[in-house]
Amino acid sequence: MNEPFDIDAYIGKVPNFPKEGILFYDISPILQHPPALAHVIQKIQHHYKDQPIDAIAGLEARGFYFAPALAIAMQKPFYPIRKAGKLPGKVDSQSYDLEYGSASIEMQPAPQLAGKRVLLLDDLIATGGTLQAAATLLQRQGATVEDLCGVIGLPFLNYQESLASFRIYTLINYDKENL
User: Fold this and answer.
1) What integer is the mean pLDDT of 157-162?
2) Which residue intervals define the domain Phosphoribosyltransferase in the entry (predicted)?
């Protein structure tokens, strides 16, 4: 696949957000440039085209920008995993630690996921806590989660250690040296 876009050119870097000492990677420029967004979705789709994937799950909030588009491109169902308190009815919940705090995510029961292979997608992989929590939720539904995908990876935060049981694909990685 040709690399017509320098993805880095479409990722904003915002220092000290959401708190002092954190560099926030803003994917808004990708979303505001349709060819860049199409390129991201096509690149992910191309990477997984020969994988036996039955469904796509994505994390609120920024994973929601990419996961449904990928689900449409791959003709797979999309399962949202949301922040606590955003879903009606019965939910399954999982708490986790962030690089700058803690949180909980939830999903509605999805018995149709039992025995299905799910690709879990988010915009950024930092410490891996959010994706690990989401994988736990999906596994409790009976799904198999082997593959995790992030548009951006921050390997210097050691997500590979906490996510060692998964295959991880990212489109771009940032090292501590190139911040």
Assistant:
1) 94
2) 29-144
